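Example 3.2
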Amino acid sequence: MPTKAIRFSEKEDKAIKDFIEKNPYFDFSTIARMAILNFIEKPEIKLKPTTVDFKQVNKKRLQ
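Structure, written as tokens:
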């Protein structure tokens, strides 16, 4: 069976670990497989609008 890799931020990794600790009947592989297959069947992405502080972005670019 092929193996795939997924990169997560530290925040995402912590959320996954916390979920698995609270839900011992699930493991990472099962959750990932369910999420991917669900996305394939219903390819929808819900986006949350955010605001960008362009002064901060430009300040960081100049540093």
